[in-house]
Amino acid sequence: MKYSENKFFGQFGSTQRGLIAATIFCLFTILLVISGDAGAAERKDTDRLKSLIGAKDALLVADSEGKTIVAKNDRQKRVPASILKILTSLGALHYLGADFRFKTEFFMDAKSNLTIKGYGDPLLISEVVDDISRSLAARIGAAAVINDIIVDDSYFTQPLTIPGISTSSQPYDAPNGALCVNFNTVSFKRTSSGYASAEDQTPLLPFAENKIKALNAKSGRIVFSHAENDITIYAGLLFRYFLNRSGIRSRGGVKTGRVEFSDDKLIYRYVSRFRLSQIIAKLLEFSNNFTTNQLLIACGIKKYGPPGNLANGIAALKEFAASSLQIHDLTIVEGSGISRENQVSARQMMRVLNRFESHRDLLRQEGRDYYKTGTLYGINTRAGYIDSRFGGFYRYVVMINTPGKSTRPVMRKLLQALE
After folding, report:
1. Sequence-separated (6 or more) residues with CB below 8 Å from residue 257
2. Are 72 and 330 in contact (CB under 8 A)?
3. What pLDDT, on the 0 to 100 scale, is given for residue 13?
4. By the 8 A CB rule, do 311 and 299 touch?
5. What backbone phi and psi angles, to 5 degrees, belong to 145?
6. Which of 183, 180, 184, 171 is nearest to 119 (CA)?
7. pLDDT band at 345; cut points 50, 70, 90
8. Does residue 27 lie in a domain region?
9. 141: left (phi over 0), alpha (psi -120 to 50) or beta
10. CA distances from 147 to 111, 189, 254 (A)
11. Is residue 89 domain-shared with residue 142, that is, in the same domain?
């Protein structure tokens, strides 16, 4: 190095050498000042971010290579709320695969009873039930007559209680089951003549209207429960409505029961039009608790076999977290984040984000930000990715567990700091 420097400077006179040396010194000094200013600005940004994180909150931000940029309380467990859905979605992708599709089967016995067996499809919405009914009419004849419709939800253990789910009429409290339609809810409105469905594609069946009248509400949603098999009975009634509209008449009623595989003949197997990746995109966009826990239970079935139940779903997700994410002390009681008993750290959530990055397009996007939010009373969380503009993505976890505070000021500061 010394020889090279002498050879370089030797090409010039002493005055020129002095000017060159002075110029190099000035440039070096400027670079040091700029570097110092940048470091001071960065420290100021991180200090401002940390000041927004209280004793009950947590923050962790990392660059595209996993290097921590700022952290506070990142190893302490907090209530994650709905950002937990990212972990459950990741577990479902692991166990089921992005192209997995749910099925629903239809059997006929010698007495012309139609049995519908559910396998946990979370998207048996009215449009789908209508399409299935048309397909059944094409197979058994548009003018066919059947007797009873038997609904079989034995693929999931019942009753299936989810911690954090109450008996309210809010859609986020919809219970889970193996055979469910329209997320176990009906949207309604009051009219001059009584009540009507608030959705053109869904009829207001007398079964639902009677329950709505008991509420004496002007509008909203009614949520069916497991009481008196309301969930499966309503599914059977909705199928009967659309079957009748397709030309198939039912002379009997709707009853609960099970497929008798030795006697019943499989006449149609519906395979969902939605791939798992599409289901996940929808549940993340609308933060659907019902759908998320349907996937959690499906993970348990995949690993341990039917019937599905919450305990096996949790066990499967914990096993995935331990073996694939190196999270060995995961504290969860369900998969959607609706329960306050769920407790995870920002550091654990960062491991989830590291693995989920290739699926970030399934999250909501605003500008450079791909994200999932979570909200419970007194809880406000957010996790996701920010495009670095230089290649790769920053990853962040913000968990506000202080009542009255939100993630909004933290995100404003964070996006400014990462400009």
Report:
1. 115, 150, 151, 152
2. no
3. 52
4. no
5. -125, 130
6. 180
7. very high
8. no
9. left
10. 7, 33, 9
11. no
Q: Which two tokens stand for residue 415?
A: 């996006």
Bridge pairing between strands 149-152 and 254-256: parallel
Q: In degrees rounded to 5, what are phi and psi of residue 56?
A: -95, 0
Q: Which residue has the tokens 């009748």?
A: 244
Q: Which among 217, 242, 274 is the end of a domain?
A: 274
Token digits of residue 305: 């076999």
Where residue 42 falls among pLDDT bands split at 50, 70, 90?
Answer: low
Residue at token pair 């002095």: 18
Provide the mean pLDDT of the chain.
89
Gap between the Cα atoms of 414 and 369, Å rounded: 11
Q: Domain count of the chain?
A: 2
Indicate if 319 and 216 belong to the same structural domain.
no
* DSSP strand pairing (393-400 vs 58-62): antiparallel
Domain that holds residue 370: 54-97+277-417
Looking at the chain, the whole-number percentage of residues with pLDDT higher than 70 is 89
3-state class (DSSP) for residue 107: strand
Separation between Cα atoms, residue 308 and residue 156, nearest integer Å: 4
- Whether the CB-CB separation of 335 and 295 falls below 8 Å is answered with yes
Q: How confident is the model over 174-193, as pLDDT tens digits?
A: 889 999 999 999 999 998 88
Q: Which of 8-17, 278-287, 353-362 has the lowest mean pLDDT?
A: 8-17
Q: What is the pLDDT of residue 390?
A: 81
DSSP string, 204-216: --HHHHHHHHHHT
**Whether the model pTM is above 0.90:** no
Amino acid at 368: R
Output the CA–CA distances (angstroms, integers) from residue 387 to 63, 83, 186, 399, in the order listed.
10, 19, 40, 21
Question: CATH code at 192?
Answer: 3.50.80.20
Q: Coil, strand or helix: which one is 392?
A: coil
DSSP string covering 315-358: HHHHHHHHHHH-----B-SSSSS--TT-BEEHHHHHHHHHHHGG
Contacts of 165 (CB under 8 A, 6+ apart): 173, 174, 175, 289, 334, 338
pLDDT digit string, tens, across residues 229-257: 999 999 999 999 999 999 999 999 999 99
